[in-house]
Amino acid sequence: MSTDTTTTPHLTIDGTRPPSRDLVADLHAFADRVEDTQAAVAVLHLTGGATTEQAPLDIALVNKWERALRRLERLSATTVATVHDECGGVALEALLTTDYRIGTPDVTLRLPSGSGPSAAWPGMALYRLANQVGVARVRRAVLFDVPVTASTAVELGLLDQLAPSLDAATHLANTFTPTPASDVAVRRQLLLEATTTTFEDALGRHLAACDRVLRGGAA
Fold first, then answer.
1. 89's torsion region: left (phi>0), alpha (psi -120 to 50) or beta?
2. Phi, psi angle pair for 43, to nearest 5°
3. In Å, how far from its chain's centre is CA 167?
4. If 12 and its partner were Cys, which of 45, 59, 100, 128 is the partner (CB 3.0–4.6 Å)?
5. Are 207 and 152 members of one domain?
């Protein structure tokens, strides 16, 4: 059964926007809509290269932005992203929090810029990249500002699927069918913690998730 696009929350993020209080508010409003409507799928439309203009930032704002992204990463809905053209800055940071990513052949992924034209912003995007892809496979992109093409992004698992056009990518996102299981947030969290949690610490959480599945099956 296809997703009902009339109730599916959508949010567009332009990578040329710097982190700001308005952008943080947009992310929280989007998360509120997902939670209030109990949506099964939420869609983000991402594009725009990282801005070269240095907006006024302070560490408190950066913290709020990272926490808004973390909230997005923990939503109970399956998050689907469409990506086209150059995608960097805040758009790339949002992309790395999503569950399923659909790009077009012209996609180029670039890390958020730091204090110089080729300096990667040392935010949590680096943490997510290292955990999702591995240090060796993203080292050049992180250290030397090497753009990641669409085909390479698919190879690395940063994109899940390529669509021939933006319209096709949007259609796929709007008709995305999520898994029938209701615990996507639990399984996502177990994956996110897998590389940083010892077996002994992880065992209890995995057993609790298994028990939840078994109880659901018995019901």
1. left
2. -120, 135
3. 20
4. 45
5. no
**Does residue 93 sit within a domain?**
yes
| The model's pTM | 0.89
Task: Tell me how far apart the alpha carbons of residues 169 and 105 are, in angstroms, rounded to a whole number.
Answer: 11
| Strand 108-109, strand 148-149: pairing | antiparallel
Which residues span the domain enclosing 195? 184-218
Which string of DSSP letters, residue by residue, matches 86-129? Answer: EE-HHHHHHHTT-SEEEE-TT-EE-PPB-SSTTPBP-SHHHHHH
pLDDT tens for the chain, 219 residues: list them.
344 555 899 999 999 988 999 999 999 999 999 999 999 999 999 999 876 555 677 899 999 999 999 999 999 999 999 999 999 999 999 999 999 999 999 999 998 776 555 567 889 999 999 999 999 999 999 888 899 999 999 999 999 999 999 999 999 999 999 876 668 888 898 998 888 889 998 898 899 888 888 887 554
Relative to beta strand 148-149, strand 161-162 is unpaired
In sequence order, what DSSP letters do the residues of 18-38 get, joined into one string? PP-HHHHHHHHHHHHHHHHHT
Question: Among 218, 213, 214, 215, which residue's Cα sits nearest to residue 182?
Answer: 213
Whichever domain contains 96, its CATH number is 3.90.226.10
| Residue position matching structure tokens 């996502």 | 188
Terminal Cα distance for the chain, rounded: 23
Residue with tokens 């057993």: 207
Residue 87 bridge partners (DSSP): 48, 109
